[in-house]
Amino acid sequence: MFNAALTYMIIGVLSGLFYREFTKTNDFPSGEFTQLGLVLFFLALRKKVVADKAETGAAEATSLSR
Q1: How far apart, in whole angstroms, are the C-alpha atoms of residue 62 and residue 66?
Q2: pTM greater than 0.90 (yes/no)
């Protein structure tokens, strides 16, 4: 679980850094929504859903083993 959290944290930091530098380099207007930002939002949402499912599955497995 720790390795998965660490991996997702690194992916999140790198994608945020890429987004910031990409938009600055290509002179995107500040404050406007972009498709790239939307993609990164859905990646973060997916990570949250997967983590919640893993946590719920671990709790169910623990309760079943008792």
Answers
A1: 7
A2: no
